[in-house]
UniProtKB/TrEMBL annotation:
Gene3D superfamilies: 1.20.80.60, Phosphatidylinositol 3-kinase Catalytic Subunit, Chain A, domain 1, Phox-like domain, Pleckstrin-homology domain (PH domain)/Phosphotyrosine-binding domain (PTB)
Domain PX: 50-158
KW Oxidoreductase (keyword) present: no
Organism whose genome encodes this protein: Armadillidium nasatum
Topological category with respect to the lipid bilayer: Peripheral membrane protein
UniProt similarity note: Belongs to the sorting nexin family.
Protein name: Sorting nexin-17
GO molecular function: phosphatidylinositol binding
Compartment list: Cytoplasmic vesicle membrane; Early endosome
């Protein structure tokens, strides 16, 4: 059992949505034997989070190429996404810092020079989780290519996928029709969505009325496993699933008035028609025998618009159905069937006589909701994309004028239910503000990013938004070994030399051809004192990397006293000099140069 599992059996994913809009004028559709009827108004402020729920529930020790290090398992929307090192997250932070500035980003957890104890590893895990949770609250960051592209490549590295070789990916419509696409394995979800929609000739302004989903399709039923997001690669997510799943194109809006906008286009109408027929056939939409006969007549004539208009009048049209779960209302551990649509969560309960009773929780009367991860080490099993805990969705509901009550749903699809609530709220707010669904191309397009791999090497990644195959030279490893002896000498000569100082903070490095360093570190005020006798090249590389970051990042200055000197002795050169802390740019440049040069040997 991991340290995290021993210390905490229940933890809350800090993702919460608060809703504050007036309810509709009509009374909530309820059945008195399940929910009390109440038509009062609610006026609570809205602060709705984005469609990403982060957690870092545990860590793992990895042994690779003779070195040991700790990786942090990042879960997004309740499922394992990737395993990354601290320095990889630091590299992401530095790129976001350059893009958005310090005011946008939360503080990054500080570095430590010594090996971490288990307690310190757990502390760092909690701080990193807090960091990514705070980071996810900024819409600009979530929509940026740097952030989403980094997550895709972290997923790619974790699953050991060759991101350079093209693969064939199948995308399905709801009637089982299949399309084949030759794509890069790291192609992001929205890029694939645009590629699919262009292929079927759906107009550009209608693309984001639809989304891609991982679904389990068979002759008897279909189940939505997850909505694919832009932070992941559809190919990798599908490949890593334990069950056979298909990537399916479905509509992704909740306001039924949007049907008329989509149906104005021939392709859009056909997509709605196909999805509606599939949902009626599988029982998601309830229809009497008489209605079924009328629908069959429309289908035989090819009257798609008439078919769609009749279907819109049926119960559960436009709803998403979820697997059976348990609820604490009206009693603890009550088995319920849940569906979302028409600005509500509908629950159905089978009584002892076998008759279904139902009620609905209106979204406009939910004050807030949150997702909890229930850690049950004995019962935990690998989910579709990795280790997944039991999930619980809780929402605070206005039962009567003076009564607010928390309702809990425990379901493996808790995140999907939360995203459905999120979508309905966003559309309600958009309608009130006169907004619309986003159009193709609204993402913040950076073009490229630098992705640091676990071994410390970096890759320049060209983010491909066209949906076309990546050129052969779009992603290359940074040239580590191209620094020459002459270039190193030139970089060193740029610094001013001084005589030795007593009682000053020093870092003494001696470089040998045998790839061994002797390092002695002393800082004033006893802030940091440690002597390293013999360090291997990987250890000293890590040390230099941390030292460079400490100099370059203002928020980490507290690691050392204000007056900080570097003293570097390279046996290759008869040089001995000091650099004042104020020369931060030159210090960082020098240290990076030494680090890169040492990697050649």
């Amino acid at each position: 059992m991991s340290l995290h599992e021993r210390s905490c059996c229940r933890r809350i994913i800090r993702a919460e949505c608060k809703i504050g809009i007036l309810p509709d004028k009509e009374d909530t559709q309820v059945f008195s034997d399940i929910l009390p009827a109440y038509s009062g108004d609610v006026n609570i402020k809205l602060n709705c989070s984005k469609k990403m729920h982060f957690s870092i529930p545990d860590t793992e020790e990895v042994k690779q190429n003779g070195s040991e290090y700790v990786v942090y398992n990042l879960h997004i929307n309740g499922m394992f996404h990737c395993s990354v090192r601290y320095r990889q997250l630091l590299s992401l932070h530095q790129q976001l810092y350059k893009e958005f500035g310090a005011s946008t980003l939360p503080p990054f957890p500080p570095k430590r020079f010594l090996s971490l104890t288990p307690v310190q590893i757990e502390e760092r895990r909690l701080n990193l989780e807090k960091y990514v949770l705070q980071l996810s609250q900024d819409a600009r960051v979530l929509n940026s290519d740097i952030f989403n592209g980094w997550l895709v490549w972290a997923q790619n590295e974790t699953q050991h996928i060759n991101g350079m070789e093209e693969v064939v990916l199948d995308v399905y419509l709801m009637n089982g029709q299949k399309f084949n696409f030759k794509v890069s394995p790291t192609l992001q979800t929205n890029d694939l969505l645009e590629k699919v929609c262009r292929h079927i000739h759906l107009p550009k302004h209608l693309i984001y009325y639809f989304s891609l989903y991982l679904m389990k399709l068979d002759n008897r039923d279909f189940t939505i496993v997850k909505a694919l997001q832009d932070f992941e690669s559809p190919y990798i997510s599908q490949k890593c699933s334990r069950m056979p799943l298909k990537i399916v194109l479905r509509k992704s809006y909740w306001n039924l008035n949007n049907d008329f906008t989509v149906a104005e286009d021939k392709v859009g109408l056909n997509l709605l028609y196909i999805q509606t027929m599939a949902e009626i056939e599988k029982g998601w939409i309830s229809a009497s025998k008489d209605i079924m006969r009328r629908l069959a007549a429309f289908q035989a004539r090819g009257a798609k618009m008439e078919y769609l208009r009749l279907a819109q009048t049926l119960k559960f049209y436009g709803y998403t159905h979820f697997q059976k779960c348990t609820c604490d209302f009206p009693e603890e551990n009550t088995p319920v069937l849940v569906s979302a649509g028409n600005k509500e969560l509908n629950i159905r309960i089978r009584d002892q006589s076998g008759v279904f009773k139902e009620g609905s929780f209106r979204v406009t009367r939910m004050r807030c909701w949150r997702i909890s991860s229930i850690k049950e080490p004995v019962q935990s099993v690998r989910g579709n994309d990795g280790y997944m805990s039991s999930l619980e969705l809780s929402f605070e509901y206005l039962m009567s004028k003076d009564e607010m009550r928390w309702i809990k749903l425990r379901s493996p699809q808790a995140v999907l239910i939360s995203l459905c609530l999120q979508g309905m709220v966003q559309e309600l707010l958009g309608n009130k503000r006169g907004g619309s669904l986003r159009a193709s191309g609204e993402r913040i397009r950076k073009g490229s990013l630098s992705y640091m791999k676990r071994d410390g090497t970096s890759m320049k990644v060209i983010l491909n938004h066209t949906g076309e195959p990546l050129p052969s030279d779009t992603s290359t490893t940074s040239p580590i070994g191209e620094l020459s002896l002459r270039r190193l000498s030139e970089r060193l000569s740029e610094l001013s030399f001084r005589d030795g100082h007593r009682n000053s903070e020093l870092i003494n490095l001696k470089f040998y051809h045998a790839k061994i360093f002797f390092v002695r570190v002393h800082c004033e005020n006893s802030c940091y004192k440690q002597e390293f006798k013999i360090l291997s090249l990987p250890q000293i590389s890590r040390f230099i990397h941390l030292a460079v970051g400490s100099v370059m990042e203002p928020e980490l200055k507290t690691i050392f006293p204000i007056r900080f000197y570097f003293s570097i002795f390279l046996r290759l050169f008869p040089l001995y000099f000091y650099v004042k802390y104020t020369d931060t740019v030159k210090v960082a440049s020098l240290m990076q140069t030494v680090f890169l040069y040492a990697k050649q040997f």
